[in-house]
Amino acid sequence: MSKTPDRARDTYHVGNLAPQLMSAARAMLEEVGPVKLSLRAVAERVGVSPTAAYHHYANRAELIGHLAAQGFNELAAALADRNGHGQATETLRQSTLTYFRFARSNPALYQLMFGAEFSTGEMIPALLAARERAFFELRSTMAEVLQSPHDSPEVRRAARAAWSFTHGLASLVIHGVLQIPSNVTEERFFEGSLQGLEYLFKAGDGDGA
Amino acid sequence: MSKTPDRARDTYHVGNLAPQLMSAARAMLEEVGPVKLSLRAVAERVGVSPTAAYHHYANRAELIGHLAAQGFNELAAALADRNGHGQATETLRQSTLTYFRFARSNPALYQLMFGAEFSTGEMIPALLAARERAFFELRSTMAEVLQSPHDSPEVRRAARAAWSFTHGLASLVIHGVLQIPSNVTEERFFEGSLQGLEYLFKAGDGDGA
DNA sequence: ACCTGAACACCGTTCAAGT
DNA sequence: ACCTGAACACCGTTCAAGT
């Protein structure tokens, strides 16, 4: 009876504050966007003073850094659980589509993951590691598609290319530069964009280059 | 003698404050980045009170909105002055490389142009118009490459695809996700990435799809 | 060990003035 | 018409406390 308070009331400290701050931040992120997400507001949401957050995260950058790391870990997990058997084209299409869908499902998180909030070189190790994990999955997929070693130049370039294309498309859609017409599904839009690449390559074949 | 002061001294107002604020903002943008660029600091740089800026721009969003518009106009101009004669592959390569170089030459401006600072739908008309101009040039290039009408679905998809790929690559490099090795030129890096796409398409051809 | 309150520097923005 | 000064609300961050 004395250990667990029978009803919620103002407690001096909450206990596992760090994860609570994270989930509050995660929720607010999609509400207010990556730029306006403030440490003070996150603390207030949890019902704690702003300074309390500083006992768990060094500063705002570290807090949102962990948020972004969470995003990359989820992305890596999504890319990892592909079913490896299938034709090369199918594997490629499925993986990039998974990526595209992840970005569209978490637009603010995705913007944070690749946003300008993190000045180059000012990223926490957890974020860098998570990003590497996501990139590793992408390269594994490309190795599978090309049937080449994970470290070969071909696979490296293919991963770079696939990532650029998919990230670019996702960014432009999230940012509102490109709009998916209401009568077109996410999947068809994505495939139309892939076809655009084909057109360009065919045009290149035809001119004698 | 009375019209033009013989030496610079504290004048009550400066005259053409708007363009001065813009160029100060442009300079500071690449110094502090798109997130930390503040209206107050810009005003101070010009030597004017923060409130003075509000007589020329409605708020910070409008100020940086014009900055981003400037960026899109410069990008459009860079894409426009291509020499139209040449093989399709060459035209495509040159245009996308021009795009890539523009982004790399103005990293903070580029991040601002596509950044999360502008919540969807909160963009000034000048910015939307400038962005359309840039996109128009890209589509013109694709129409030339594909030898198809500017409004055809093929050209639309190709422009979307080319833009996604180039924007994605530029973003990842600027953000530091991808690093160009010091012994590799910008151009070779770009071409290596293009080759990555080819590998993937060839793999697709080979599997009987 | 974990949290609070007061304080500082900075920011965007507004409003009543000044020239 | 164009600019300033004081003020407000918000922010990140620090420091001296409290339990």
Chain-wise SSE layout:
The structure is a homodimer of 209-residue chains.
Chain A: H1 17-36, H2 39-46, H3 60-80, H4 88-105, H5 107-113, H6 125-146, H7 153-175, H8 186-206
Helix pairs in contact in A: 1-2, 1-5, 3-5, 3-6, 4-6, 4-7, 4-8, 6-7
The structure holds a DNA duplex (19 and 19 nucleotides).
Which terms summarize this structure?
homodimer, 209 residues, mainly alpha, Arc Repressor Mutant, subunit A, Tetracycline Repressor, domain 2, 2 domains, elongated, DNA-binding
Give a structural overview:
Two copies of one chain form a homodimer. By secondary structure, chain A is an all-alpha fold. The first copy, chain A, has two domains: 1-57, Arc Repressor Mutant, subunit A, CATH 1.10.10; 60-208, Tetracycline Repressor, domain 2 (Orthogonal Bundle). Helix content of chain A is 67%, strand content 0%. Chain A has helices at residues 17-36, 39-46, 60-80, 88-105, 107-113, 125-146, 153-175, 186-206. In chain A, helix 1 packs across helix 5 (107-113) and helix 3 packs across helix 5. The first copy, chain A, is elongated, with a radius of gyration of 21 Å. The first copy, chain A, starts with 16 loop residues before the first helix and ends with a helix. At the A-B interface, helix 1, helix 4, helix 5, helix 6 and helix 7 of A face helix 5, helix 6, helix 7, helix 8 and helix 9 of B. Chain A binds a DNA duplex (19 and 19 nucleotides) through helix 2.
